[in-house]
Amino acid sequence: MMKPVIKTTLYELQHWNEQLKTTRITISTLDSPLAPTVSNVYQAFTQLTNQANDYATYTTD
Length: 61
Hints:
Elements: H1 3-29, H2 35-60
Helix pairs in contact: 1-2
């Protein structure tokens, strides 16, 4: 019952992960003062994506 929700959440996290990678590169290239903040958000989403992957694997076993 939770699997469709997990797959949707995982897809959304992967989408934002790609968006944040692009954004981080752009802001870092411009040497913006926002670069550290964007980097922190990117790292948080990466951690959430990893947790979602672990949870999805755990629930399918």
